[in-house]
Amino acid sequence: MLTTDLVRTRISEGRVIPEYLDPDQTDALEKAESLVELFSKALEEGAARGEVETAVDRIVGYGTDFRIWRGLAKLLYDRSEFETQAPVDPADIRRSVFQRAAQSEGRRGDEWRRGILKEAARELEIEPHEVESGLYADLDERERLEAFDPLEPRALLHRYNLALAQAVLYRATRLEIELRDLRPNALRYLFQSLKFNRLMHRVRRTDEGYQLTVDGPASLFNRSRKYGIHMAKFLPALVHLEDWRLRARLDWEDEERTFEVSSDTGLVSHYSARGQWKADEEKHFETRFDEIDPDWNLERRGTILDLGDNEVIIPDYVVSHSDGREAYLEIIGFWRLSYLRRRIDALADREGLPLILAVSERLKAGRETLEGSPASVFFFKSVILVDNVVDAAEDVALPADRVADGEPLA
Asked: How many CA atoms lie within 13 A of 121 on its CB side?
């Protein structure tokens, strides 16, 4: 992702407007191609990080547009892996060499130096030239390029534009998203990404589709950086839809600004729109559930449930008992007390909706605590306990024919 110093925007009538690149511009394509070729060649040669940085400096230069090319290079560094190359730990090499050098204080010269290296090599059971090359191999500039995931120059320019929009969202205090792409698979993909990133949100039906309201990272203060990363990761999933519009309120340089982007902007997602979005805690939870309680079954069903007043909810699971009772389970990540209370109040007003809320205590924003929470709400820190889910399900589950029907996502 782009760092703050690489973000290029302008302000017009209170709006923050990113200065996107034209992915068809010849100069931009040529510069992107030269940078990709640089990293690919460096991988072939096993170049050191310092050598790569020097070569990047030569291409980027220091003209008025250097921030653009620095941004492209930053994205390529993110696709690279540098590793220390040494036969043994460089710290052990330095210890052996420095001890011998200290013991022979007063002697200097090439012959003395070669002797120190040979003695250290014998102790470490490596060659003298390996002692010399490995002495400071763990310094950042001497790490070697071990892996690089290349991409086409035009794809790099598209990645830059998306990263630029993502960087703006770090300053968001609120997002309003209009969805008019109603393809079931597209919606399922989007909602799974929304919930995987644990974004605080409300979903409402509209005449044309759905409206998402998402609280932004700047509204969480002490969690802003971590939450902002989740927000940025969600944007590529939204870009996959064919018809959408996002309007954000920003806290931009101590001024309230707005940012708008839509399917007409021309952003291109690098995500593959397939597969399941599952957090590690959910994978562990699913495995443990199957092992612990044979009477209750856990199923991802992908259902949109009406809460009344056009508001809907998309729970993560359906929990069903062998006797036919069912309940829905939603996992809530980042939250504020007001957000959680809205969820609970909506449940209180909706009969026939046995919904369990598993709430992450670790990801709450603020110090307030929920007093007198209903049995269908429980908190967890790092692991969702199966027993807590089963206990809540025993309290709220209803026979399947009494459970409110939902609209399937697929």
From this structure: 15
Neighbours of 350 (CB within 10 A): 17
264 CB neighbour count, 10 Å cutoff: 9
Structural domain boundaries in the chain:
90-136, 153-267, 280-408
Instruction: Tell me the CATH number of domain 280-408, given options 3.40.1350, 1.20.950, 3.40.630, 1.10.1060.
Output: 3.40.1350
Answer with the residue of higher pLDDT: 375 or 240: 240
- Please state, in angstroms and rounded to a whole number, the distance separating the CA atoms of residues 329 and 325: 13
Does pLDDT of 191 surpass 50?
A: yes
Degrees to nearest 5, angle at CA 307 with 306 and 311? 80
Largest CA distance in the chain: 91
pTM: 0.82
Whether the CB-CB separation of 42 and 148 falls below 8 Å is answered with yes
Give the range among 19-23, 199-203, 255-259 with minimum mean pLDDT. 199-203
